[in-house]
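Thread: "does anyone have the structure for this chain?"

Original post by V.I.:
We have the sequence but no experimental structure in hand. Need at least a predicted one for the grant figures.
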Amino acid sequence: MFNCLVVKLNSMSRLKEKYFKKIVPALKKELGYKNDLAAPRMRKVVVNVGLGKAIENKKLLDQAVSDIAAITGQKPVLKSAKKSIAAFKVREGTPVGLMVTLRGERMYEFVDRLVNVAIPRIRDFRGLPETSFDKQGNYSIGVREHIVFPEINTDSVSEIFGLEITIVIKAKNPEEAKRLLILLGFPIIK
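Reply from O.Q.:
Generated one for you, C-alpha cells below.
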C-alpha cells in the first residue's frame, strides 16, 4: 500500500499512524492523486511567544522557557530585539521572545495534544476560523493562555502568556490544506 514510503507503524505517534493509514488514502481518493507523496502533509509546526514583559521581569523569561519546553518537548530559541526602541524601553539584543520549530514525531505528538486536549480546554471556544490560512495553505492559531496545555502546573505559574502556532503545510492550494486539517481533527468553522 505504501510502497514509496518506508514506515514503521509500531513506533509512531497516534496522529501519524492515523495520517498514514486513513487520511492519506482518503485524500488520494478525494483529490485524485495516484502517489502517496502528492497528498497534502504537514511539514513543520512553529510555536512563537512574545515576551515584552520580560524586559522588566527576568524571571518571566526563565519560566517561559521551561513552560514552552514542557509543552513542546524541545528547548526554545531566544529571540532578541533587532532595534533599540526608546518608547518601549527595548535595547538591541535584549531577549523579547521564544521560538520552537517542531518536525517529525514531535510535530505529530504536539498537534495531537493541541487538537485533542488543549483546544477543548480553551475558554468560550466556538471553533477555529477558516480565514487563518495564508496563500500557501499554512494555518496560524493564536492561543491566549498557555495554561490550556496539561503539561503546565497552574499553581507554579506566575504570569500567563499567549502563543502563536503556525502549521506549515505542503499543499497545492489552501482548500487542500483545509481538508487535511479537518481530517486531522481541527474544529474549523466557516
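V.I.: this helps a lot. DSSP finds four helices and seven strands in the chain.
O.Q.: and Confidence is low (pLDDT under 50) at residues 1-9.
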